[in-house]
Amino acid sequence: MSTFANVKQRIANMKQLQGIFCKDCKIFTDNVEDDAIKLIQSMLDHRAFEGSHVRIMPDVHMGKGITIITVR
Q1: Long-range contacts of 19-24 (CB under 8 A, 24+ apart)
Q2: β-bridge mates for residue 7, sequence order
Q3: At a CB cut-off of 8 Å and minimum separation 6, what does 39 contact?
Q4: Per-residue model confidence (pLDDT) at position 7
Q5: What's the pLDDT at 62?
Q6: Is the dihedral of CA 32, 34, 39, 44 positive or negative?
Q7: Do 55 and 40 contact (CB within 8 A), yes or no?
């Protein structure tokens, strides 16, 4: 599969979230653990992320109290 086809597939599977302060979060997969979603949502609801553009990579998973592969 070409790189362009890979990108198109990831975009098709992408989830988008919004929080109280961060309105722009893209998760480049639709296969995310519920605990990881809850933690990402709490991050988006925190004032520290106001106006941020958050991108979560496809291999996101829960660590010990944080999501792994979170990019801000």
Answers
A1: 19/43, 19/44, 19/45, 19/46, 19/49, 20/44, 20/45, 21/45, 21/46, 21/47, 21/48, 21/49, 21/50, 21/51, 22/46, 22/49, 22/50, 22/51, 22/52, 22/54, 24/52, 24/53, 24/54
A2: none
A3: 62, 65, 66, 67
A4: 67
A5: 84
A6: positive
A7: no
* Type of residue numbered 72: R
User: What pLDDT does 22 receive?
Assistant: 96
Per-residue pLDDT tens, the chain, 72 aa: give them: 567 677 666 667 899 999 999 999 999 999 999 999 999 999 999 999 999 999 998 888 888 766 665 555
